[in-house]
Amino acid sequence: MVSRLNPYLTFNGDARQAMEFYKEVFGGSLNLNTYGQFGQADAPNADKIMHGMLETTSGFTLMGADNPPGTEAGQGQPFSVSLSGDDDAELRGYWEKLSADGSVSVPLEKQMWGDVFGMCTDRFGVPWMVNIVRTES
């Protein structure tokens, strides 16, 4: 798998509608996962989008999600830049450089969905997400 760089949009509860709209605009394949699918089935936001990804035939990738539980509506910037792939060394190298002299909001570590994931803001104020896809051994 090649490493990928793409925008990641954050919504205030209407990620499903927004991502479905972008699918209408750009076409392609849309995959949506809710918070309920990842261990929060009884939470009030169980039907909200934890992660959505649109991949188009033109080669566009757009990701998006609703604000995570416990965050204020409109908190932070409405976007991040996402780096993802399965090259552990390459992506950890990017993480080290991006998070240096910046701030880390989610340490780069294994998450409930099995991948290694972290969030940081670089020294210029740009928010980044790094996801290292688990590979089968």
Keywords:
single chain; 137 residues; alpha+beta; 2,3-Dihydroxybiphenyl 1,2-Dioxygenase, domain 1; eight-stranded mixed sheet; 8 strands
Detailed description of the structure:
Helix content is 18%, strand content 39%. It is built from two helices and eight strands. The protein has an eight-stranded mixed sheet with strand order 2-3-4-1-5-8-7-6, with helices on one face. The mean pLDDT is 89. Residues 5-130 form the Glyoxalase/fosfomycin resistance/dioxygenase domain.
Biggest sheet, spatial arrangement of strands: 2-3-4-1-5-8-7-6
- Catalogue the unreliable spans: none
CATH superfamily: 2,3-Dihydroxybiphenyl 1,2-Dioxygenase, domain 1
Query: How many strands?
Result: 8
Radius of gyration: 15 Å
The structural domain count equals 1
- Summarize the biggest pleated sheet: 8 strands, mixed
- CATH class group: Alpha Beta
Judging by the overall fold, what is the CATH architecture?
A: Roll
Taken in chain order, the helices and strands follow as: EHEEEEHEEE
Per DSSP, the total helix count is: 2
Overall pLDDT confidence: 89
Strand content: 35-45%
Structural class: alpha+beta
Domain Glyoxalase/fosfomycin resistance/dioxygenase: 5-130
Pfam family, one: Glyoxalase
Protein name: VOC family protein
Organism: Streptomyces venetus
